[in-house]
Amino acid sequence: MGVIIKISVVLLSVFLALLGLGFHNITSPPAITASFNRNQYWGPGKEPQKQDDSVRKFKLDVPDNVIQDLKQRLSNMRPLTPPLEGIQQQYGINSNLLKEILEFWRTKYNWTERQEYLNKYPQYKTNIQGLDIHFLHVKPQNVPKTKKILPLMILHGWPGSVREFYEIIPHLTTQSDDRDFVFEVIAPHIPGYGFSQAAAKPGLGANQIAVIMNNLMQRLGFKQYYCQGGDFGAIILQSLTILYPNNVLGYHTNMAYVSTPLANIKTALGMLYPGWIVRKDHQDRVYPLWDKFMHRIRETGYLHLQATKPDTLGVGVGDSPAGLAAYILEKFTTGTNIQWQTREDGGLLEKFTYTNLLDNVMIYWISNSATTSFRLYAESFSTAHTGQNVLRQPIKVPTAVARFRWDFYVADGLLGEIYPNNLQLSDFDGGHFAAFEVPEVLAQDIFNAVEKFLVYQSNVQQ
Ligand SMILES: *[C@@H]1O[C@H](CO)[C@@H](O)[C@H](O)[C@H]1NC(C)=O
Ligand SMILES: *[C@@H]1O[C@H](CO)[C@@H](O)[C@H](O)[C@H]1NC(C)=O
């Protein structure tokens, strides 16, 4: 773009933004417009008189006929359309790759074994606000009395599940001599995902799920706790830290979210001089703005569909194992590294195994939760939900942000608006599913962050 055009575009967008919103509305966050009822009922029909607040043990025990049916569907599927000549993942998942994975699923993936694996951590269900919430609860073993055990909630997103955390959990719950604390991990499924019951009523967006998640921690006796999330787990937990600053002791995220008019204006102004908002070595992650915008459009078609017509989309995706695997696994190729778009194997085996990836697909399959998982987008991107302004608020509790090379990116100069109390900013190689992809790296970063949170708290108390 020519310099004159560039300057004109920037000034025009700034002018329009100021005109539309007024200076005050841009520089200070609008008030939260909703009140959040801790007892709001999301279950089917009328709220029962008496609520069951017990915490029940849970184990996966999928009936044989479900697995038979799955195998039959995989055997009877229609032929996949071959990819265009010279095309790898650019039109969506490569069907040669998909074919190989589906064949593996049908002939080698052993559910008996995998179910045992998925049952290796203690799991529970408890009813909150009318919904049965499923979660892993893993405590560290043989901890000396001198060490603190800190409660940490970790939350997945879409198209993930608690399966993403099976490799990181041992890192988080194993004590090491050089630290005086270790974690007790609580990993819930979002309502409508995996084995957490879906809402029967409209309106259960990220903010409302934050209420449920805080209620879960209170039910388990954790008045105060730490939390960590990526993808939609990050959105929900960001909301939770804003709604319950007295309950959250610190928040670590591998997907910081800053979307405000001021951030947009700064990003536009940065076209003139990127150094205002973004480090020199990261400028190609934000600019050229138009390229980045078009890239975003190309990669987020799923989001638009899920945010508008989840029920239509869910029929096809949810009814076919091939369709479900294609839809989910595409995200694990390009979401992990966009450069893998030009590889026929999608790079999947660089960081994952077919078995591990199919565990996650299986959780969606056996719980039949395609549609209910998509609805999270409809509920959270509705104007009613965004108009609640929760994610426009600065986070009061201490935070730590880990940025992965191929994940969504927030520039240093924008972070402060929502993360004014950020104690750690780390940059790593890797993609969107950090816990699943590089468990050791993420665990180490969480430990480092919580160490800083603890120092911060002891300073505040003095
Ligand atoms: C700007 O903020 C004021 C006060 O907070 C509010 O009354 C007004 O509706 C806002 N204007 C816009 C365009 O959002
Ligand atoms: C699947 O795993 C179970 C448990 O390890 C084993 O007993 C069984 O033989 C395996 N099935 C196949 C088909 O390999």
Automatic annotation (TrEMBL):
It catalyses: 1-(4-methoxyphenyl)-N-methyl-N-[(3-methyloxetan-3-yl)methyl]methanamine + H2O = 2-{[(4-methoxybenzyl)(methyl)amino]methyl}-2-methylpropane-1,3-diol; cis-stilbene oxide + H2O = (1R,2R)-hydrobenzoin. Pfam families: EHN. It is an enzyme of class 3 (hydrolase). InterPro entries: AB_hydrolase_fold, Epox_hydrolase-like, Epoxide_hydro_N, Epoxide_hydrolase. It comes from the Eukaryota. One of its GO terms (biological process) is epoxide metabolic process. Keywords: Aromatic hydrocarbons catabolism, Endoplasmic reticulum, Hydrolase, Membrane, Signal. Gene3D superfamilies: alpha/beta hydrolase (3.40.50.1820). One of its GO terms (molecular function) is cis-stilbene-oxide hydrolase activity. Its EC number is 3.3.2.9. One of its GO terms (cellular component) is endoplasmic reticulum membrane. Its main location: endoplasmic reticulum. The active site is at residues 231, 377, 432. Residues 1-22 form the signal peptide. Belongs to the peptidase S33 family. This is Epoxide hydrolase.
